[in-house]
Amino acid sequence: MNKTRVKLTAIAVSALVLVIALSSYLLYQPLMWFDQSGQLQAQVAQGQVGERLGQWLRQKGYKTDSRVFHVMDTHCMCNWRTEAHKQVVKRKVNDSNGTNVELSLNELPMLRHFLPATPAVIIFDANSELVYLGPYADGAFCNTESSFIEPLIQRVGAAAKPLDSGWVNTVARGCYCPSS
């Protein structure tokens, strides 16, 4: 009976170690910088990222006034981590008299020029001024606790004073898939 208890304890401890190791791998292994190669930061240094992106979107037939663009790559393993947060954001955008637009990086590959990784979000105010460009949040799970955009959503439906050409977030670390 004592040997059985020792064996069961050894199996339980081994299983616990395996679960902890697997959880650590799943939580922290996929973490990367949103702008890993510095592509977006280089564009920021050149200036007018928001204007160029807004112009490109309008040329593609999208309105940019009071719009929040949710950009996903259908092959990105991180989409599931963003889904709940994205739904919260969508409700808040609707409450702020804004419009949500889903964009697929697979259908609009030129977006890769503006977005080094996905999932990403692009926010424009009522004047079609860029408010935010970057990831929803940082960390292993994209949620409202680590959100960058929650305080900015109120600007979607308002014609507010511009934020010095918008916030282009290049320094987040989380579960993102490189777009290039």
Low-confidence stretches: none
Query: How far from one another are the termini?
Result: 59 Å
- The helix tally amounts to 4
Structural class: alpha/beta
Mean pLDDT: 86
Instruction: Tell me what portion of residues adopts beta-strand conformation.
Output: 15-25%
Largest sheet: 5 strands, mixed
The succession of helices and strands, N to C, reads: HEHHEHEEEEEEE
Gyration radius over CA:
20 Å
Assign a percent range to the helix content.
25-40%
- How many DSSP-defined strands? 9
Globular, elongated, flat, extended or rod-shaped: what is the shape? Answer: elongated
Q: Going across the biggest sheet, name each strand in turn.
A: 3-2-5-6-7
Can you characterise this structure?
Helices cover 35% and strands 19% of the residues. It has helices at 2-28, 39-46, 49-59, 79-95, and strands at residues 31-33, 67-72, 99-104, 117-118, 120-124, 130-134, 167-168, 173-175, 177-178. The model has no long low-confidence stretch (mean pLDDT 86). It has a 5-stranded mixed beta sheet with strand order 3-2-5-6-7, with helices on both faces. Strands 1-8 form a two-stranded antiparallel sheet.
Fold topology:
Blueprint: H1 2-28, E1 31-33, H2 39-46, H3 49-59, E2 67-72, H4 79-95, E3 99-104, E4 117-118, E5 120-124, E6 130-134, E7 167-168, E8 173-175, E9 177-178
Parallel strand pairs: 2-3, 6-7
Antiparallel strand pairs: 1-8, 2-5, 4-9, 5-6
